[in-house]
Amino acid sequence: MRRRVLVAISSALIATQAVGAAPPGYFEFTTGAVLETGDTWISAGKRYRLYGLQSCLRGTSYTNASGHKRDCGEASIAVLAAFVKDTGPVCAPIVGRTDLTFAVCYALVGGQRLDLAMMMISEGYGFASLDDTGVPIYPAYAVAEQIAREARRGLWQFKDVQHPAILLSRAARKPGVLP
């Protein structure tokens, strides 16, 4: 619940800030960051993850239109890298642990602020994160995911793409098995 309140507050702050440099408390998500996955990166020695976003898992695959197997996680990373390069988003830390800080990020596109996680999900290269009970962390992301799925955007155009939550759930039920 605390996380949802923090996201709501962060979203409100994004909407009220003047366009320009990163607002106080925000940092730039630079192209110099090292992307670990399509939702996690390291910058200036600190590890970050986009709050509410689950990228495709590295090492899992989908079959493209030509019949070739491709790494699903690499596809998510490539799209995140392109969004970062093209839009220069800024981020705000919202929940931190010793080893990881969750952040919300936005980019200015056509004079509008767009949520980076929402961009990933809407384009079909990211998924709504679920909590331990299977409920979406941020319901708006789940709605965007369903719309992308129905429109067959991004990875959803491939019939064998599996939602990472399904794979992670299966792995959790089988100790020692990683997807």
SSE topology:
Elements: H1 2-16, E1 27-28, E2 34-35, E3 40-43, E4 46-50, E5 53-55, E6 61-63, E7 69-71, H2 72-87, E8 90-96, E9 101-109, E10 112-115, H3 116-122, E11 126-128, H4 139-151, H5 164-173
Parallel strand pairs: 4-9
Antiparallel strand pairs: 1-8, 2-3, 3-4, 5-11, 6-7, 8-9, 9-10
Rg: 16 Å
- Structural category is alpha+beta
How would you characterize the largest beta sheet? 7 strands, mixed
Number of strands: 11
Taking all residues together, what is the mean pLDDT? 85
Q: What share of the residues lie within helices?
A: 25-40%
Order of helices and strands: HEEEEEEEHEEEHEHH
Gross morphology = globular
pLDDT < 50 runs, ≥5 residues: 1-19
Structural description of this entry:
By secondary structure, the chain is α+β, with helices and mostly antiparallel strands. 34% of the residues lie in helices and 25% in strands. The protein has five helices and eleven strands. The protein has helices at 2-16, 72-87, 116-122, 139-151, 164-173, and strands spanning 27-28, 34-35, 40-43, 46-50, 53-55, 61-63, 69-71, 90-96, 101-109, 112-115, 126-128. The strands form three sheets. Strands 1, 2, 3, 4, 8, 9 and 10 form a seven-stranded mixed sheet that branches. A two-stranded antiparallel ribbon has the order 5-11. β2 (34-35) and β3 form a beta hairpin. α3 (116-122) packs parallel to α4 (139-151). The longest helix has 16 residues, at 72-87. It starts with a helix and ends in a 6-residue tail after the last helix. The relative contact order is 0.17.
